[in-house]
Write a structure and sequence with these properties.
The protein has 228 residues and is α+β, with helices and mostly antiparallel strands. The chain contains three helices and eight strands. It has helices at 3-8, 149-156, 172-227; strands at residues 20-33, 45-53, 63-69, 78-81, 86-92, 97-104, 112-117, 134-145. A four-stranded antiparallel sheet has the order 5-2-1-8, with no helix packed on it. Strands 4-3-6-7 form a four-stranded antiparallel sheet, with no helix packed on it. It is elongated, with a radius of gyration of 30 Å.
């Protein structure tokens, strides 16, 4: 048991009511094609699956270990990583689901499980300008609602992971801007369609009223003719 666990006790010092801490993370993979099948095993790609902080901070202050569960065809499919970088590099020929389980320094904090579909082949979302290899990164957030006093200390006492410029393969700020543009464009289109449908509904109602009025005139004329 760590010194911190002894210091805070078995309950981690108790829950901190009304406190929420959010830690943004990025997970995903990079894959590079060999150019042809490898003769000895038929593998076509080298890939690395990774979990890392979104911001420049050392996650080991609050993460105890990350377990990557690979396809059962791999030797030792459960890979345990206890310090940054939290990643596993392998080779293969097919895509499969990697189960990523993040364990925290406070044993009272439930592990977080991520089901990540490994990507080897390019799609529109994995094509990064200027990159020959495949890049697939996902932004997510670890939300700690009312963490223990121990966990809160772990979460709020992080240090920089790197002294160099810290960045991701994908520019998430640009991706955010592009997504907002798409959302606003869709909203504008929906508003335009609603306005168009409202106008058509109004025209239909006016036409119905006009036809009803014409029917009443015809009925009135018919009644007058019958009574003469």
């Amino acid at each position: 048991m760590s010194n911190m666990a002894v210091e805070f006790g078995p309950d981690g010092g108790g829950r901190m009511k009304g406190v929420t801490v959010v830690k943004p993370i990025v997970y995903g993979n990079i894959a590079k094609h060999f150019g042809k099948k490898r003769e000895e095993d038929g593998h076509t790609h080298q890939w690395t699956v990774i979990v890392k902080p979104y911001n420049n901070e050392d996650m080991s202050s609050f993460v105890k270990k990350v377990i990557f569960k690979l396809h059962e065809s791999y030797t030792n499919p459960n890979r345990v990583v206890t310090k940054p970088p939290y990643e596993v590099t392998e080779t293969g020929w097919g895509e499969f689901e990697v189960v990523i389980k993040i364990h925290f320094q406070d044993p009272n904090e439930r592990p977080v499980t991520i089901y990540y579909p490994l990507k080897l082949f390019h799609t529109e979302s994995t094509a990064v300008l200027g990159k020959k290899h495949l890049v697939n990164e996902v932004y997510d957030e670890l939300v700690f609602h009312e963490p223990s006093a121990m966990m809160h200390q772990c979460l709020t006492n992080t240090k920089h992971l790197s002294l160099a410029v810290y960045k991701h393969e994908i520019d998430f700020e640009e991706k955010k801007k592009a997504t907002l543009v798409k959302i606003n464009t869709a909203k504008t289109k929906v508003r335009s369609e609603i306005t168009d449908l409202s106008n058509r509904l109004k025209e239909s109602r006016e036409m119905i009223q006009k036809m009803q009025q014409e029917v009443r005139v015809l009925e009135s004329t018919s009644n007058q003719s019958a009574g003469s």
